[in-house]
Amino acid sequence: MHTIALIGAPIEEGSGRRGAAMGPTALRIAGIDTALAGLGFTIEDTGDLSPEPAVELGTHKGARNLPVVAGFARALDAATHAAAARGHLPVILGGDHSLSMGSVSGMARHAAVLGRPLFVLWLDAHADFNSPDTSPSGNMHGMPVAFFCGEAEFAPILASDRPFVDPRRVYQLGIRSVDQREREEIREHGVNVFDMRAIDEHGVGAILREIIARVEAENGLLHVSLDVDFLDPDIAPGVGTTVPGGATFREAHLVMEMLHDSGLVSSLDLVELNPFLDDRGRSARILVELTASLFGRRVLDRPTRSA
Fold it and tell me: Is pTM, for the whole model, over 0.85?
């Protein structure tokens, strides 16, 4: 069995609102370590990271809170890469989605060492392919995909010669809120987008089989980045960027179960959980249940909850 490295990233500065920094604590309170240990994994909780110094970057009119976001990206790049290099499976407890600038970059370095390509499965309502030049808000949680694909090198956040993710190896599922300029960038760079219409028309199972087959064909590593707003807000309200019409509880579990069966997942982000907006910890518990599905818990193993 793998050792799972839990890495807390209490960042909220990329989102433009307060609360996501409490996400790692909420996931721990919801029992993520116990759930994974109960599946036979060894759990190494490294605690919460602090951002590395990045004050030299100063301010940027199109990238709000750049030094803090960059500092977390540097810390996560190092921590994720180090955990993977030890043979552990990194699970990043977020924190807003800007943290993926660091976690995916760290995994891209690890994949390059192994001589294997890195694929990214982006489970989110948003494409997050903005840059400071295209972002309507300047919030950096809308920029990580462009960043780790090398299309948002607006500041020396990480080394410019680092490995990037080929945007044609990025698969986005559940998308339903994309800016117009962002839509053009996605199309130009070949990002694979399966929006909610695609899920409705083809079913999540058929889409996942296609993605898994492509990763297997190239002997790739797969990083999964799960945003709370991938789910419909009626199921998981604890997020600051709610978009109606998201994935159902059952669709999300099927995604996780199929990913587990594939044996391809090498790392995981859990992002955008805002306990301040949640309903008595419901979203945190759902994220823990989905994570347990990803690591092998089956439907028949689930306890019945009292009303």
Answer: yes
